[in-house]
Structure formats: C-alpha cells, structure tokens
Amino acid sequence: MAAEKNVGLVLLNSSLSPFGQRCSIALAEKGLPHEYVEEDLAAKSDLLLRSNPIYKQVPVLLHDGRTIIESLIILQYLDEAFPDTRPLLPTDPYERAQARFWADYVDKKVYGCGSRLYMIKGEPQVPANIEMAGILKTLEGELGEKEFFGGEHGFGFLDIALVPFSTWFESFDKFWGVGVAEVAPKLAAWAARCMERESVSKNVFSPEKVSDFIGEMRKDLGIE
C-alpha cells in the first residue's frame, strides 16, 4: 500500500538526469512521500557534495539522514527498506539476478553508446549507429512478447532502469538515423506503453524536449 506519512526520504536530483528520473519513478510507483531537492549541477550544493563526496553527482537518496547513492542501488534499497510497498524486483532469486543483469546492460550499453553518439558525427558515427541498433534489438529480444520487462510481475525494476532513456529514441533517429520504430518496433511500443503511466509521464522529459536539449548541446560543442 502507498505510504501515508512522511518516511524521512529526501531525493537530491536533477530533472535532466535519466538516472535521477529512475528514482522519481520508483518513489511514485511505491507511493512514497519524499522531499525533492533540485540540484544545479553547475553549482552543486554543499549538501550534495557532503552526501556524495566520491562522485559528487545525483541522484542521492537521504533516508533519515543516511545516504544512498547510485540509481540502481537506490531502487534496490527502496524495495528492501519499504517491503510493504509495491515491489520493483521479483521475489525469485534467479529472476532478480536477470533483472539486475539487464539493468546493468542498460547502463553500459544504452547510456554508454548513446553518450558517444552525442559527441560524434560523420564517418565515426557509422559503427556507433550499428552498435546502437544491435543494442536495441538485443533489448527487444529480452522483452519478447511481454507487455513490460517485468513479465507477469508487470512494470518493474528493468522497466524503470530503461524507460528514462526511451525519451532519447526520437533523437537517435533525428540526429543519427537510428529509427527505433524500424529497428525494434516492439521496444518502441513498450516505450509508448510506459509513457501512459503517470509515474513515468510526470518524471521524464518529453522526447521533443530531449531532442532540443541534445541539439543545443551539439551546437555548443561545435558538432552541428
């Protein structure tokens, strides 16, 4: 059941961060009230720097003053710290391990390759485009015929890990010619289903806003 009182949670975040968006989605899915603190990443607060002195980045979850960092760790912590709320991970150990594996794949592959694409154009872009198309097809294979990656458990851990990056899909096509609807149509349909969830639609940027941001960033870097 959704929590009905303050449970001592503070999320230090940036609305720009797909990793922070994961945490906001998870908190919404679990119905956990919390204080949200928007961080200016160009002028990081003393609280953020004290809370995460190693990486000095968002997201950071404070629970009764104790610090939890790294988005996937935060998601797992929320499951363990609030067992009476809607679970994100399945209960079966093997299924939990699989969900963690694929979430790690999202970070290493989708974010890793997507970040490289932002910074290149011309001939070097070709192998990166091929790599991204392969990544999307691999994720579509894992999704299969399921409505969500959580399968019979519904929208869950892996869905939350990936869905903030689905707002990049339009940019993959616009800037790099990787059309997700053509390369991985089931994955594109999954993204559309996720956006129908209030927890998602209220906590991620629209694809149009992401595209505008990427375009401005590439101009600033002299890529466009």
TrEMBL record:
Known Pfam families for this protein? Answer: GST_C_2, GST_N_3
Question: Would the keyword Transferase be found if you checked this record's keyword annotation?
Answer: yes
Check the record and name the CDD domains matching this protein.
GST_C_Tau, GST_N_Tau
Substrates-to-products reaction catalysed: RX + glutathione = an S-substituted glutathione + a halide anion + H(+)
Instruction: List the GO cellular component terms.
Output: cytosol
Q: Which GO terms describe its molecular function?
A: glutathione transferase activity
Recite the UniProt keywords alphabetically.
Cytoplasm, Transferase
Q: Where is this gene product found?
A: Cytoplasm, Cytosol
By its UniProt entry, which InterPro entries does this protein fall under?
Answer: Glutathione-S-Trfase_C-like (IPR010987), Glutathione-S-Trfase_C_sf (IPR036282), Glutathione_S-Trfase (IPR040079), Glutathione_S-Trfase_N (IPR004045), GST_C_Tau (IPR045074), Omega/Tau-like (IPR045073), Thioredoxin-like_sf (IPR036249)
Q: Which residues form the GST C-terminal domain?
A: 92-213
Origin species: Lolium multiflorum
Q: Which residues form a coiled coil?
A: none
Positions of the GST N-terminal domain: 7-86
Described function = Is involved in the conjugation of reduced glutathione to a wide number of exogenous and endogenous hydrophobic electrophiles.
Q: Cytoplasm as a keyword?
A: yes
Query: Which PROSITE patterns does the record cross-reference, listed alphabetically?
Result: GST_CTER (PS50405), GST_NTER (PS50404)
PANTHER family (alphabetical) = GLUTATHIONE S-TRANSFERASE GSTU1-RELATED, GLUTATHIONE S-TRANSFERASE, GST, SUPERFAMILY, GST DOMAIN CONTAINING
This chain belongs to the protein called Glutathione S-transferase
